[in-house]
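Archive entry. Fields below.
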Amino acid sequence: MSLLDVVDIHTYYEHSHVLQGVSMQAESGTVTALLGRNGVGKTTLIRSVIGFTPPRTGRVAFAGEAIEKLPSHEIARRGVGLVPQGRRIFPSLTVRENLAVGGVPGRPGRWTAETVYELFPRLRERSGNYGGQLSGGEQQMLAIGRALMANPVLLLMDEPSEGLAPLIVRELEATMSRLKETGLAIVLVEQNLPLALAVADTAYIISKGRVVFHGDPEILRTDHAVRTTFLGI
Amino acid sequence: MGIQFYVQNALGGLAYGSLLFLIASGLTLIFGLMRIINLAQTAFYLLGAYIGLSLVGQGWNFWLAGLAGGVLTMALGLAVYSAFLHRYHADPLTSLLLTLGFALILDDGILARWGGDPHAIAPPAMLGGSITVGSLVFPQYWLALIGISFLIAAIMFLSLQRTMLGVIIRASVDDEEMARGLGVDVNRAFYIVFAAGALIAGLGGMLGGPITSAYPGLDGELLPLAFAVVIVGGMGSLTGAFVGSLLIGLVNAFGKAMFPELSYFTIFVPVALIMAFRPQGLFGRKL
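PREDICTED_STRUCTURE:
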């Protein structure tokens, strides 16, 4: 049994049928990459799992229990962490307060404000600053730290490298590897293919709301046909 | 127009602004958090005033009567919220019509229970006198009301800035969906903010009563002023409600004294200016 088991979900925005029968799995201690061109439904898949846009049909099981009908805050409290697209830091909260909101589920574990500051020392220096005053890289650290505060067992990361300088992207890669070693399951939506291939243990390619490839990311490194057809590169 | 004119109207304006704050603070927080435009907010004020004056008529102490009026108004507000409104947050049009309906029902209920005559509300005996400074004479109660409103404002600020509930409310005003995604039960914060808004407005009815008195239709007169405060201060901003209330209170007092025939118009000069040059309000987030 997989930690996260998405079975044949169909998700709509109003009348637009975005996910047309997607199934995927994620396991503890691994990174699962979701790849594909813009607008194919990767973010919608993340939103379906966290409950922002619940699937109309299909199943989402987390740790063996159905979660597709639960409200988002219940899903989060069961151990699903979210690093959303665009980071969505609370601008009128300080760094410290942003982390405190992340800790609302009150799940015990290795992550506290103190251990998050050890992972990202820059956040300690900025702890009294408001979210709206941070640089892009600092916001990304905060978005990850905020999600870790709940001691999740599954971390959903939607385009974490977006808008970051190459040096910061390399740090992000190292951070993801460290998190993976702690046993965390990571589902990673990423446009930056080298980053995704460097950290992913398994990859899905989504095209027009369907999974069109599932397998070893190593194949994507070598198989140019698959890359050009589904990723456009 | 000597210094006396200015001091007198400044004090009167601050006192009136203080009672506006008790209405507008709830209005702005309820809108900022749940996107509900609560047209019943001034009806809550009026209900609190009538409950308070009935209790005073039965021999209750002014402060206890005001507090009881606030608590009963809060209970009614919570009943309305949990029975109807909670389904329509983030749906401004439906919630606007619903709260308008409740305002009308409350108005008619008040008319049926207390009749159409205006009721004066006397300030507590210990604050019933006037203060004389040279040729300047003003009611003691003005100062007391300003002091109480500032105290309530300070409590609200501290709760919002220094407590975990306040952090959660501010996070939810910033990005409600994200707060849910992090495990925050935002609905709980909604109930608390709606209840607090109704409590403070209901309490405000009695506290402001010695200035406004209580009569059917008072809520309709106060509502545009409360909205002027929210627009000038910025929707969702408590600081904005505070500054906006005092500003509108002062403009109202000086407008009435200097251009009595244009008194209602003067209120909307700052509103028009804000809408033209800073539509998000003085302290609101960019639209």
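CURATOR_NOTE: The mean pLDDT of chain B is 94.
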